[in-house]
């Protein structure tokens, strides 16, 4: 990888060749057998006054090909721009033109990706909104569609001891009912809502509660809800006691959330010394 940056200009050139037999058991690597080339060039301006403190337009090119010579996996051209401003805010908008392999076909898709994050105060922080809108591919049906993803997360701290982390997302895809023409038929909608509450009693003890609801509508409706509670107490610097419980529920045939699994556990963590 070659990385260069100055006060105004920056660029990156990266090359990866990952063989078919490569394994990364200790890390996340979604695909092997590819040759990946990425090039990015950007220009930065820093206004002397106003809410915006940095503006950076850029252009990104990415090309993935299979190492076995079977051809293109992904080619992406994406101009974009990002901003930094008050309240530790960051805004990025990128327009992507992809040629992507699905099954044994190459599809041309165009879509927009946007990210907005900010931390306006100590009580409200880590707010982030991610939006993707435009063309997409129905992998199972090997056809073009239009859809999007909207995801919102944030952290609230009503008191010094309580932290609430909220996550919510919706993804959808529309396809053409005839295989060509306007994409007016909803193929699926997926909603996820999650709340994590952590109350810190002291430096030794905390309580964490998590609830998550998932709903997918595709040829019917599937819904599930999971919840968990965890209490931790630090007995000393070597020993921590954990007590927890979990509950899993799924939508039954009579449209009710029925229990599918429950658990209670007790764990003691001890750090051995040599």
Can you walk me through this structure?
With 274 residues, the protein is mainly beta. The chain has a single domain, classed as Maltoporin, Chain A (Beta Barrel). The protein is built from no helices and 15 strands. The chain has a 15-stranded antiparallel beta sheet with strand order 1-2-3-4-5-6-7-8-9-10-11-12-13-14-15, with no helix packed on it. The chain is globular, with a radius of gyration of 24 Å.
What's the short version?
The protein has strands at residues 2-5, 9-18, 34-43, 52-66, 72-85, 89-102, 105-118, 124-138, 143-156, 162-175, 185-200, 205-217, 221-234, 239-251, 257-270. It is mostly beta strands.
Helix content: under 10%
User: What is the strand tally?
Assistant: 15
Which consecutive residue ranges, at least 5 long each, have pLDDT under 50?
A: none
Class inferred from helices and paired strands: mainly beta
Q: Provide the β-strand percentage band.
A: over 45%
> Could you name the CATH topology?
Maltoporin, Chain A
- Please indicate the count of domains: 1
The first-to-last residue Cα distance is: 41 Å
Going by CATH, the architecture would be: Beta Barrel
């Amino acid at each position: 990888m070659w990385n260069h940056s100055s006060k105004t200009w920056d660029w990156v050139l990266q090359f990866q060749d990952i063989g078919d037999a490569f394994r990364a058991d200790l890390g996340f690597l979604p695909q092997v057998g590819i040759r990946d080339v990425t090039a990015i060039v950007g220009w930065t301006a820093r206004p002397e006054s106003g809410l915006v403190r940095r503006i950076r337009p850029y252009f990104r090119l990415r090309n993935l090909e299979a190492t076995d010579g079977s051809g293109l996996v992904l080619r992406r051209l994406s101009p974009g721009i990002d901003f930094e401003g008050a309240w530790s805010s960051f805004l990025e908008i990128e327009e992507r033109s992809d040629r992507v392999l699905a099954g044994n076909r190459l599809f041309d898709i165009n879509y927009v990706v946007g990210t907005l994050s900010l931390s306006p105060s100590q009580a409200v922080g880590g707010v982030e909104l991610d939006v993707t809108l435009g063309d997409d591919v129905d992998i199972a049906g090997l056809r073009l569609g239009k859809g999007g993803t909207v995801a919102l997360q944030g952290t609230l701290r009503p008191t010094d001891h309580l932290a609430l982390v909220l996550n919510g997302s919706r993804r959808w895809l529309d396809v053409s009912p005839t295989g060509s023409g306007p994409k007016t038929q909803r193929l699926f909608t997926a909603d996820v809502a999650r709340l994590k509450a952590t109350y810190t009693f002291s430096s030794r003890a905390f309580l964490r509660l998590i609830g998550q609801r998932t709903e997918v509508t595709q040829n019917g409706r599937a819904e599930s809800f999971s919840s968990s509670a965890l209490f931790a107490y630090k007995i000393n610097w070597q020993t921590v006691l954990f007590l927890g419980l979990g509950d899993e529920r799924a939508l039954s045939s009579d449209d009710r959330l029925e229990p599918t699994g429950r658990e209670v556990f007790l764990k003691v963590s001890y750090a051995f010394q040599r």
